[in-house]
Structures are given as structure tokens and as C-alpha cells.
Amino acid sequence: MMGGMWTSIFKTDGKNVYLDKWIKYTLAISLAIVLMLSVGFPVYAFAHYPKLFPVGVGIGILFTVGIAGKLFIKRFRGSNISFSIIIAFFTIIALVYMKELSTYNYRHSPGLDLANVVSQHIKRDELYYYKVPDECLSPMNFYMNRLIPEIKNENNLSEAFLTNNTVYCIVGKKAYNEKNSFQNVSHTVLQNIRYKDIDLILIVNHLKTDRAEW
Amino acid sequence: MLAILITISCFVLFFDLGGRGFQNKDYLRFAETAREMMFTGDYTVPHYAGKIYLAKPPLLMWTIALSSQFGGIITPFTARIPSALCALLSIITVFLFGKHLYKNPMAGFWAGLILLSNYMFFLYSRTVKTDMMLATFIFTALYTFYMGYTTDAQRRRIYFVLFYVSIALAILTKGPLGFILPFVIIFIYLLCKRELVFFKHIHGLMGFGILGLMVGPWVILMCQKIELNTVINNAFSESVVRYSTEEYGHKQPFYFFLPELIKGFLPYSIFFPVTFVYLFSKKVERIMEIVGGSQYGLSPSLSLCPSRGVKAPAISFPCIRRWRS
Q: A126 forms bridges with which residues in the sheet?
């Protein structure tokens, strides 16, 4: 397949194509690199990711359609499909990349884990946050499909917690340890939660302590 | 050819589109902002984590909310549909552009396939970010401008309507950058062509009207809810400050972008050396032409006008197309 391309570079007599010798040589080197990668990448990919069989089948269909088009459609008989094959090879690499990301994600989604841990306590009760970075807050909002209101100061905290309803609050551990705000409010620590490298604490206004290190 | 290209593109762009979660090489931010729009019913002022979020205009969030309306919930698949559809539109535009420039649908077909298999294009077409949408609207704006530039006066108006619609959508995607970037490119192009006078024929008044109709209502509605100063300061800081200061952590030395450029254009960055040799040889010919030694009339703008006498080597056309786009 590279032969046709090679010929098209070095045998331009009689064609309306002009190629400078420097262009010829740099193009030839580029094509040699493409050839090596085209062979090397798929071998590497399918050796390392055996789960990619369906992707391979998909690409196989593309190849078959391309080759069938060349053989059976009169218009394409004279055309050179070598470059399309190279493109297909590189497309495999891109698919491998995306598929690998997908596989990784199925094992690991910290935001979803965080939301699940909080959800198992909360159900449909009230939940607030206090001194929690947006990085933690947005996955909780998104995966729990709610807008968690903020407790901005000590007065808010007292107002929110001094009710007859069960009220939960997720607090940054650093803020919880530094501030004295929580000493004046009756509460129970439900769970310590670690999200990436941030420590959080889930507290409730009235519940028996259910300490479980997570 | 276009049907084959669209079929291949749909397979590559939509295959396992929702398989990857948001927190994996993607931004949850835009999906969350769209969810908050659906949750609160406020589609005018975007909110993120309950706070006003003006870093980006709302078009991407609107489209995410729209594609998620049927299920009522935002999933990775529904959130990525706008980017994937924009990528498809880009590929179709590239096809039409290549077909028009080279009077050959095969040129457009190859250009479309190459764009599709480009690493960074492929990655961004499957992520929830504004970049793919912005690139698409800028590209359609440039295409429609070129068509308007090369066609007769009667058809020009239609192309310029599409041009301003694309600009308006680009502004709604990423703010003033959607306006600045295409106009800088067009200015440089016309400067190289020594036809700056063409700016008289771009139907500026109609353009202001279209931009006003498409962007204005959102700006007015937003200004009713928040102060105009906040909106202006935010647009300025997103379009100018972030590129000139270290405030956003984006400032990098110039050499930082070279490996990024090579990585972004993979696998076609392999053809960079050929492209530079080709461009250099053209530059030499251009000098020769000025001196009076060349018979070939070379266009100074390689990007949009192929030379008359010398045909670009067919094989390097695609990489040059990619390089310039």
C-alpha cells in the first residue's frame, strides 16, 4: 500500500505535479514513519487490550466496505485507497484511547462514590454544606440531583440545626477542626469521607453516633 | 461521497459516546451548570454550585439541557451530543470547502477523514467542553465568508447571513473571542490579498442586526437579573485577561506550545517537516517571482487560494489543510 504512495512521490513524469527534491525526501521520511506506526500501533494495541475485539470488528467492517468499494464500484477501481487504510489504522488508535478511558472510568469515579456515600444517609432530608470546595460540591449536586444550600456563618448554622427536622451538613474537615462554631450546636458526626485528597465530615443535628470510617 | 463520510463520522463520533464518566478527562462543570438550569428553570443566568457562573456564555449549557430533555436527566451521552454534532458539522463543512476549492469531491472526502482522525479533534468531539462548538462555528464562519468573498453580489448576501449567524453562535459559545478570532483571520487574509476594501461589502449593518437579534435578547434578559458591569467585566476578563496574565494559570513560555501543537495534530504532525519545506520552497518561489524569475503566479495566502501554475502535491494537501485549519 505504501508502494503506490512512494511511486506517486518519486515518479511524477507526465503528471501535472511538481515536487522539489527536499519535499520528496522529507515526504519519504514522513511516509516511512507513518508505515512503521501503522504497523506498530495496532499490534501493540490489540496485544495489550484484548477487550477491544468489538472495536476491531467495527474497523474490520470499515476495511471490508472500503476494499469492496474498490473492487466492485467501477468509479473507485482506479483510485488509491492506501491513505484511507492508514487513516483507519490511526482511528483504531484513537478508539483504543477512548475505550481505555471508558474502562478506567468504570472502575473509578470519585464524584459518584462521594455522592453515593452521602446519599445513603440523606435520602430526601435536608442537606447543607459548610466550607466545602466547589470541587467536592458540584459532583454531589450533580449526582444527587439537588442544589445543596450553603451555611454561611454561625447564625445560619444555629438556625438550620435548631429545628425538629433531621438536618445534615457536610463540612470540610479543616474548617470543622478549626472553627468553634460546631461546639455550640448539638450534632453528631456520622461519617468521615475522603474525596481525592480532601477530607470531609458528614454531621447530623440529632442522631445516634454511627461512626464508620470510610 | 458525503454520505460515506457522514456514515464513517457517525460511527467514530458516536461509538460508546456515553461510556466514559464525567470525571475522566472531561468537565463536569458544564453538565452541572446545564443541570442547574433544568433544576431551577433559570436558563438566562447560568449557575454553578448555586453561584452565578459567567465564565462562559450559555449556548453549550442550553444544548446540553435540550438534548437531555427527553430523558429528563443529564447523562454523559446526552451531555456529549452537542460536541459530537458540532464535530460532524465541521467535517461536513471541511468536505464542502475541499470540494469547492479543488473542484473535486475526493479532496473534500480526504480532508474530512483526516480531520476526523486527528487526535485532538477526535478527543474534543467527545468531551463536554466549549472548544469543539467554538471551533465549528468559527470554521463555518470562515467557510461562509470565503464563499461570500468569491461569489457574485446576489448570492453574497445569503452567505453573509450564514456568516453572521455563525459568528453569533460563536459569541454565544465563548463570548467576544467568537467574534475577535474570525475577524482577525479575515483581516490578515484580506491584507495578504491586498483587498481590505472588501470590508465595504460584508453587509456590516445586516451583521449588527443579526448579532443583535441573536445575542441581544440573552444579554438584555441577563442584565435585568444582574448588573451590566458584572457582565462586561467578566467578558473582558475571559477574553483578554486570561490570555495576558497568570491569573488563570494559563500563562506558559512560548516553547510550551510547540510540543502541545505537535501532540494536538497527531498523527498528521508527522507531516509538519514536509509542510514547512513546502512552504519554504513556495516562499523562495515567491521571492523569485518578485525578482521576476518565476513564471508562476503564486498566491501569498496559501491557506485559501491554491496557486494557478503549480499544483500542490496531492499527497501533502491533506496535511497542509490540517496545518492551516
A: A167
Is B53 at the interface with chain A, CB within 8 A? no
Range of the domain at B167: 2-275
CA distances from A184 to A62, A197, A204, A205, A211 (A): 68, 29, 14, 12, 21
Among candidates B149, B206, B9, B176, which has minimal Cα distance to B89? B9
Report A:10-49 residues touching B (Cβ under 8 A).
16-20, 22-23, 26-27, 29-30, 33-34, 37
Nearest to A142, CA basis, from A110, A173, A171, A108: A110
ipTM of this predicted complex? Answer: 0.72
d(CA B312, CA B322): 14
Cβ A30–B270 below 8 Å, yes or no? yes
Q: Which candidate, B231, B41, B316, B283, places its Cα nearest to that of A12?
A: B316
In this prediction the pTM is 0.77
B272-291 and B317-324 helices, crossing angle to 10° = 90
Predicted pLDDT at A3: 56
Is residue B94 helix, strand or coil? Answer: helix
Helix, strand, or coil here: A191? strand
In a domain, B311, yes or no: no
Inter-chain CB proximity B21 and A112 less than 8 Å: yes
Q: Partners of A192 in the beta sheet?
A: A201, A213
Instruction: Give CA–CA dist B106/A147, Å, rounded.
Output: 52
The more confidently predicted of residues A38 and B211 is B211
- Name the pLDDT band for B320 (thresholds 50, 70, 90): very low
Instruction: Give the residue among B296, B40, B18, B30 at the shortest CA–CA distance from A18.
Output: B296
The answer to the question of residue B283 being in a domain is no
H-helix or E-strand spanning residue A116: helix A110-122
Q: Report how far residue B41's alpha carbon sits from residue A59's, in angstroms, rounded to the nearest whole number.
A: 43
In chain A, the residue whose alpha carbon lies closest to the alpha carbon of B119 is A94
Q: Is A134 on the interface with B (CB under 8 A)?
A: yes
In a domain, B285, yes or no: no
Q: Is B75 inside a domain boundary? A: yes
Q: What percent of chain B has pLDDT over 70?
A: 80
> Over the stretch A121-150, which tens digit does the pLDDT of each residue have?
887 788 999 888 888 888 898 988 889 988
| Total of domains in chain B | 1
> Among candidates A60, A52, A58, which has minimal Cα distance to A97?
A52
Shortest distance, CA A27 to any CA of chain B (angstroms):
6
Q: In this structure, how many other beta carbons lie within 10 angstroms of the beta carbon of residue A20?
A: 17
Q: Which of B47, B277, B282 to mutate to test the interface with A (most CBs of A within 10 A)?
A: B277
C-alpha dihedral sign at A61, B9, A87, B103: positive
Report the candidate in A126, A35, A19, A41 with the shortest Cα–Cα distance to residue A91. A41
With b for 16 or more beta-carbon neighbours within 10 A and e for fewer, the B220-254 pattern comes to: eebbeeeeeeebeebbebbbeebeeeeeeeeeeee
Q: How many CB atoms lie within 10 A of CB A39?
A: 11
Residue from the list B20, B28, B49 with its beta carbon closest to the beta carbon of A102: B20
